[in-house]
Write a sequence for this structure.
């Protein structure tokens, strides 16, 4: 596979805030890459630098084999940046918005492409509706259709499904999966670790640094841990007991709790014994491989204790 994006020792500071601290990575053509982390991790700063919207304090960024600082126009003609606040014209219809973006990119014969994109995004029946009357999910699909009118080689998405309902999120991901079949490279940021599971590779970012980068599966295997999931009645009391008596990190999810451990079988026996002694009945339990969320929390907490 061909390298299409390369970042080398990228730094960016805003006053006293070190937004990005020396990250390096490369992305291959046709890959879906996810940059994941909490608010303030440096994700948006990185993606904006890749699009040529801000200048690095230090380091090199190349796209399509060209350095961004010297070839901004040539690069920007072949990429699209879809931010959280993509500028749609709310008083224009779906058709008119796509036509507007086609004309910006000097595309004269755009109608067949527009029809194709509307079918692709399942917006055909709404094409005469004003953008201001669309749901959040439909607006994001329209923004994507506008972005794709000129057939870019790289699609940059900055938290594209934030605030979008679950059904629209699922539809959006189906669209992205189909785009990969056309050879488009997708670089996205997301705060949703379940979404990152769909990427070919993922970089977990925290406090301006990439703390690990790999495929989702290898990332989960790398920490050599298992997750004990316990379902019980008084889940908060159970979690507090496990933290205080067994000194394990616990996450709560409704009526269940998760804890990441090295030896799941032995640790579950200890958990079961502790909860039984405190009259907390376990109605169900499972031992799973870690999720990316488990991996991220484990790595962050491990780095903080060093």
């Amino acid at each position: 596979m061909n390298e299409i994006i390369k970042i080398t020792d990228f730094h960016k500071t805003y006053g006293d805030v070190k937004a990005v601290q020396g990250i390096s990575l490369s992305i291959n053509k046709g890959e879906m890459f996810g940059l994941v982390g909490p608010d303030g991790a440096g994700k948006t700063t990185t993606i904006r630098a890749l699009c040529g919207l801000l200048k690095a304090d230090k380091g090199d960024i190349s796209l399509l084999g060209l350095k961004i600082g010297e070839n901004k126009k040539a690069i920007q003609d072949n990429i699209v940046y879809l931010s959280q606040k993509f500028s749609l014209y709310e008083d224009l219809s779906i058709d008119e918005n796509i036509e507007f973006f086609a004309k910006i990119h000097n595309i004269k014969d755009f109608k067949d492409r527009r029809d194709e994109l509307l079918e692709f995004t399942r917006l055909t029946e709404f094409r005469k509706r004003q953008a201001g009357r669309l749901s959040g999910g439909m607006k994001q699909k329209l923004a994507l259709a506008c972005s794709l009118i000129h057939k870019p080689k790289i699609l940059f998405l900055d938290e594209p499904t934030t605030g979008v309902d679950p059904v629209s999120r699922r539809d959006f991901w189906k669209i992205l999966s189909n785009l990969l079949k056309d050879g488009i490279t997708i670089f996205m940021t997301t705060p949703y670790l379940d979404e990152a599971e769909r990427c070919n590779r993922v970089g977990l970012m925290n406090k301006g640094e990439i703390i690990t980068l790999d495929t989702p599966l290898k990332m989960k295997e790398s920490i050599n841990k298992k997750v004990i999931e316990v379902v019980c009645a008084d889940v908060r009391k159970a979690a507090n007991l496990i933290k205080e008596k067994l000194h394990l990190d616990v996450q709560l999810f409704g009526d269940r709790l998760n804890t990441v451990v090295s030896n799941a079988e032995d640790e579950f026996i200890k958990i079961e014994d502790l909860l039984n002694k405190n009259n907390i009945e376990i109605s169900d339990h499972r031992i799973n491989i870690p999720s990316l969320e488990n991996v991220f929390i484990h790595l962050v907490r491990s780095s903080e204790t060093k």
User: Anything to note?
Assistant: The chain has two domains: 3-220, 224-289. The mean pLDDT is 90. The chain is about 35% helix and 30% strand.
